[in-house]
Specification:
The structure is a single chain. With about 425 residues, this protein is of the alpha+beta class. The protein has 13 helices and 18 strands. Strands 3, 4, 5, 6, 7, 8, 16, 17 and 18 form a 9-stranded mixed sheet that branches. The chain binds (2S)-amino(hydroxy)ethanoic acid (HGY) and manganese (II) ion (MN) (2 copies). One manganese (II) ion binds next to loops.
Length: about 425
Amino acid sequence: MKRYDERMTATRLSIDADRLYASLDALGRIGAYQDEHSGLVGVRRLALTAEDGAGRRHVVEQMRALGLSVTIDRIGNVYARREGRDPRAKPVLMGSHIDSVATAGRFDGCLGVLGGLEVVRTLDEAKRATRRPIVVAFFTEEEGARFSTDMLGSAVAARRIALDKAWALTDRAGKTVKGELEAIGFLGDAPVELDPPHAYVECHIEQGPMLRAANVDLGVVTGVQAIAWHELVITGRSAHAGTTPMELRRDPGVAAARIQLYLRAMVLSKRYTKQLRATVGVTQYLPGLVNVVPNRVHTTVNIRHPDDAVLKRALDELVAFYATIAKEERVEVQHKVTARTPNIAFAPRVQELVAKHATARGLSQQRIVSGAGHDAQEMAAVCPAGMVFVPGEYEGISHNPREFSTKEQCANGVNVMLDVVVELAEEEGV
Ligand code: HGY
Ligand code: MN
Ligand code: MN
């Protein structure tokens, strides 16, 4: 009996890069919008909107056309199963997300889902059965851009977030996750608790500059950094912009500005190894009028660090500063933690498989920690999980219509995912 590696090299399959790229374009046309800043065509498929519903139906149609059995669970996660020689064996799962931020490109998340379908197509064309079933999944609201917490669907599947809590989350218009799942026809009836798969592999764009700058073909992802999201409501007192002396003001806008500058000082300080990344992405002044001192400010803080213990220290300092600001500016600062995940490490075994198959394909590679959150970090709680990163052009910009990876970059990543999945799907055991 030939060793796996010999057999594998002999029959190394490769995906159809044109077909993969065309499928990314086709999905990217659903929810396409003309970006007013860049003039580029971007993607806007916020979770559980009509556009997300259309994107979901488009992908489910492809899953069914491939003869996969499709299951939709109660948080709207979709799993498409290709049977294996041993239907009782735990499946190998590939997946990601197809919901997007409001100013997205066509690669973020979609590469992992459509890449998974391309792996299935390639195996089918080669009449290549695998011992284990293979499942391609997409998870609900990975971005957190509408319902305020990221990796929602995969966190429910991995039991980190309870279903009823997830269902009750609301967007800014007060619409609930459950109501919006129903509205787009994806409130499934399958249980959300995922039976732990044999392993999970996700191919995703890096969304940053490192791999392209190092001129390597792909990233072997070692883990994901620690993440915390806060939503703040800062309440002061509205007043006339002209007649109110500065010393009488209780201006939440000044408080919000001081918080943003304080974050900058924390990032630059040595206390956090200069690896802290802090972003204020949303600031809304109310009533938002040129001649009125605001009475309320809604703002968000997104803060991350490779080491959760360091992030914890930073969060303690930040929350203490909220209290200082409240006192000094005589405002009320309420903050809610809307997302909080520790840094995680991916399974060394899966990392080694990614590295081995990249080498076997003659692809250059480097280890990299993910700065972005991913569904894979939730799957890592229930099974050996890993990621293949694909470089991006234009300094790897993402969450922006300029997001771009070449056909070859995408094909390299999905081919390595194919190799890793096929090897995992032949592994013995339950
Ligand atoms: O925000 C993130 O890290 C991811 O893109 N959801
Ligand atoms: Mn993503
Ligand atoms: Mn994203």
